[in-house]
What does this fold into?
Amino acid sequence: MFDLLLKNLRVEDPVNAVSGMYDIAIDNGKIAAIQKDLSPVGAKKILSFDGVLAIPGIIDLHVHVCGNFGNQTAFSMLARSGVCTALNMAGPTTDLLSHIHEACGLNLASLEDATPGRSLAHEAPSLKESRMFLSEAMEMGAIGVKILGGHYPLTPEGSVHIIHAAREEGGYAAWHAGTTKYGSNIEGLHELCDLVGNEFVHVAHINSYCRGQIRHELQEVIEAQQLLEEHPSLVSESYIAASNGTSFLLNKEGQLASKNTGVTLNILGYENSATGLGHALMDGKAFVFVQQGDETVRLTGQEAYRLWSDAGTNIAGGFDVNPPMPRIALAAARRKNGTFTVDCLATDGGSIPRNVLVSQGLGLVSSGILSMEDYIRKTSWNPSRCLCLKNKGHLGIGADADLSILDFHRQCALATIVGGQVCMIHGYVCGTGGTLITTERARKHMKSLGLSCQYVDFSNGHLPFDAER
Ligand SMILES: [Zn+2]
It folds into this structure.
């Protein structure tokens, strides 16, 4: 007796050395059996496939599903792109909690953003202020904190206080490199490594520090690799999409509120101002994100300019600012011991239209840059270790029945199955509810809200990877 029987899949699960044509039986949200020709007798539901690929559920370790970037579209975009579990990278966690019942069946964890003027009083939080911030955020359901150094930087000391507070409060810390002293570039990455020493920190989107802002982009890739190798306590991800995602909001003085937006305009040859952004939009070099159905899409030109001013400038957008070589080099880079230098392949997607782990990630496999095993390690197993999700990242008996079912040749997701629930099939998003991944600190509050939760523990950092660094 099984809840769901999936017939005729090419199952790849490197951690359990499974590779070949199998059926998968799911019971009570868990993997019950992976065998050839499982009997359909007694299965409550059966889905038959024609030999397409099934891998452990994709975990995107860097998405945005809240606040500035909107959440109405993010969940369906993730489900449609084959993602089962995602880490919301910049709060506000209360916003995620109020929408998680609409999360299309997905698993979501959230980091609270350490933003001066929003969640923090100022850009130089003391250790005591940082601990209070962390404690409150974790009781409200966040697993930890993200420093948005590229957009809303803290002082170097304030940044270190946030990282120390996360460790002391048993939380997860992520950092988009950059402080009030150094930018979000290779210098900011050097600074981050000097400041954190050997603490566990998730360094966001390594590729974005290798855009050739300070030195040649490939020199920056080499430096980033050396830094990660010298700081084995850091975990990291990079993404493979060309575009970034940022805010086009103007502040009261009429200046661009996000530092990153201004810097990117300069890189592309425009002035750091509302006028510069206006020109970039009209030239098709900048685009705004707008909702179409249950997707967010990119628009540029006159229409984008009109939408930006109609929204009182409070609109998210981006630029194709990531050069291709660093994205490929960082996806493939390895340490001397053969493990990946950048642990995970993520997207910085969600409601930002670049959920390309399947559409572009499988291109790395078909072009021989990654093996299928490498791809699964970078998109499922390694992220599961970062988030301390013991029962994800593999398909052993009793593991969570999270599966990404993919058309390898067309490079698209055919079905997304989370905890045994079919959340998307052939582009149709049908999952309901959502599970919050959080820590024990939030149990009381989550119980009062009646949310479905999976609890994780970061008191010992992340789970061990396959090999010592
Ligand atoms: Zn991000």
The radius of gyration is 21 Å. The CA atoms of residues 169 and 196 lie 16 Å apart. The mean pLDDT is 95. The chain is about 30% helix and 25% strand.
